[in-house]
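User: My advisor, Dr. K., asked me to get a structural model of this assembly before our group meeting. I'm new to this, so sorry if the format is off. These are the inputs:
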Amino acid sequence: MKYRFLLKKGIAVLIAGLLKEFKVYGPVKKDGFPMYGNITAPGDLNLLHSPTHISPKQHLFPQRETLLRFSSGEYPAVEPVVEAEEQALFGVHPCDIHAIKLLDRVFAYGTADVNYLKRREKTIIIGSNCIPDKYCFCKGVNTMTVESGFDLFLHNIGTGFLVESGTQKGKKLLLKYTKTRKANKGEVKKLSQIQNQKKEMFVASINADASTLPLIYSGSYNSPVWERIGSICYGCGSCNLVCPTCYCFDVRDDIKLNLKEGERYRVWDGCMLEDFAKVAGGHNFRKTRGERLRHRFNRKFQYQVDKFGGLFCVGCGRCSRTCLVNINIAEVTNELIEESNKRP
Amino acid sequence: MNLSKSQTNVLDISSPYISRLARIERVARVTEKERLFNLSIEDGKTLGHLPGQFIMLSIPGFGEAPISISSPPDKGNRFEICVRAAGNLTNALHNLTKGDRLWIRGPYGKGFPVQDIVGKDLLFIAGGIGLVPMRSLIKTVLHERSSYGRMNLFYGVKSPDEILFKDELLQWGKAGNINIQITTDKPHPEWKGHTGVVTTLLPPLKIDETKTAAIVVGPPVMYKYVILSLGDKRIAGHDIYLSLERRMKCGLGKCGHCQINSIYVCQEGPVFRLSDIRYLREAI
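Assistant: The format is fine. Below is the predicted structure of the whole assembly, which you can bring to the meeting.
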């Protein structure tokens, strides 16, 4: 039996235990909004059923991260900075676990990204199940459930949690900090009922098989959809910010007032921002917002898929939820599917 | 923080952002806007580049930028870059003089596949500062001039005062036996040569399309038209080499800025065969 049963109050005990070894981050309510925040006491945690506004990617790939410290002068000296501490990400939903698995591939590809990989190495992930809101469409991109990529996964079945261990590390932590028992048949049945019920709860959907989406996007390059959504888009980059698989960044220098020491850091950048693809000579390779939207959507459904395998949209719906002008990634995709069906 | 010079290497825990120190040995004015920098790498080791590759260059506090290497491959620790003052970093670079130090990392990207063009007639088409990376290749092939067939260099500039490497061009023509033609976009009172965009030089050219390789480097707008003209000459896509410019922040295939459809220019480029990127809708 792969599930262990944990009483509801066991969560607080588990958190208290984890806090002894890790910095713990998990879902909290901030100003009424679901956020991913620092957990300093078991009571801080608010195991939410809906997605957080910003994904847990911020704890593996921080919004601002120092890469080097340097001193200028006749012989500029440099010191690499790799900041990673033991951390536990608590209450990560399946979509976000899928996203982290994609980021793992991205940052290990080619020249390994030390900063990300060290942080990842020191991170344990404790997943939890969720209930879709009207923007969620993980079912349509096959990320509703997750088989790996977590150390522990907590399935809420009402009377308590069915805990699944994904790694030996997770198993040990469970043993060390909680008292669990084997889940009984009734509880496992309850879980499969919940999962079946969840399938029926989605409002948003993708009206084609996920495996056909790269081809559909490839065929939709000249679709009028891009210009139309481009005409209402503000180019604000909020979608980039909240996306769990957006990983583009800018590299900048900060220098102290003494003009002798400083640091080189990276900071999240967004392909929706106007100067993202602009070169020094002034040429902008994606001048219009429509072109930039097309690029962003294609990165999720085609370009990165070609490169890394696996859809880079995990169906969390965050970009749609945050968009100021209600550009909805599932609706846009369905429109492209419809157009593609009409094509001879 | 008090870092000594020696700590630079000791603390290196293979962060790909760590750079090597390079010293400016010579600065030469090329035109009003461009300077040629001769750099020596302080660790004494070679840069180990191929023509067409680039480095990430930085000055502490001013950030980093991709800069193409303008000198041919060299076993020593010297190399050259030719830089136009266009932004924060490049303006700061123009203020540096002999003896100043800066950081470099790389070389990055794929350069020109020199072995694939051996024995061929070479048609170089450069626009503006596109001659900078092309200079590395030209100097490389001129080093073994007899291994190649006829060579033509068509070079388009906005105005005569923007012509780069004037003395070298003369030398390449004479000693290197390259037919060099320069054109300015618009008429200029002091310009007696050809006027018109670079593609206007192509129609009279007689080539053997079965043994010609075309190498094209220029501003983004140039490629579409040059490719059409090369099509008229029946040069096949796999014999056309292009070096594409894109914004780059990391050089490591991560930051996303140089992405064209599903490829990263810093990894798969900047030099491409036309036949390899024809299917990429945003390449040209």
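One thing worth pointing out at the meeting: The CA atoms of residues 134 and 217 of chain B lie 7 Å apart.

User: Perfect, thanks a lot.
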